[in-house]
Amino acid sequence: MRRAWIVLAVLATTLAGKMSLAQAQEQKGPTLGGHIGFVLPLVTHSGGQTINNLADQFSIGFPVGITVKGSGRTAFDLELVPQINTAGQRLTTLTVHPGLVWNVGL
User: What pTM did the predictor assign?
Assistant: First the structure.
């Protein structure tokens, strides 16, 4: 009975892999992807002064990105990073990072 379960698991894994490979080969148009996260700047150096962001002036950012990839190696990535700075005036900023990503990996 255990052997039958092993054979069934191997067969299911093989079929799932072939189905995802067939789906990847069928897709010829651009693909849309994205990411979300958080960033904690550790140190800021400005005007000859270094500030420890975690202890002296806490700030946090929330990057949200959209990536459009065509059929080649190049993709367009747009990342928006709203950042909250809790020191002084409680400043909130928005950084926009557009760019091209060149895939050099496999």
Answer: 0.60
Domains of the chain: which residue ranges?
Answer: 29-102
Which one, of 42, 63, 64, 62, lies nearest residue 53 by Cα? 42
39-76 burial code (b ≥16 CB/10 A, e <16): eebeeeeeeeeeeebeeeeebebebebeeebeeeeebe
Q: pLDDT per residue over 3-46, tens digit each?
A: 666 655 665 666 555 544 445 555 577 889 999 999 988 887 87
Give the count of beta carbons closer than 10 Å to the beta carbon of residue 82: 13
In this predicted model, what pLDDT tens digit does every residue of 35-88 receive, in sequence order? 999 998 888 787 888 877 777 778 889 999 999 998 888 899 999 999 988 777
Q: In the 8-state DSSP scheme, what is residue 71? A: S
- For residue 23, the tally of other CB atoms under 10 A from its CB is 9
Q: What is the DSSP string of 11-27?
A: HHHHHHHHHHHHHHHH-
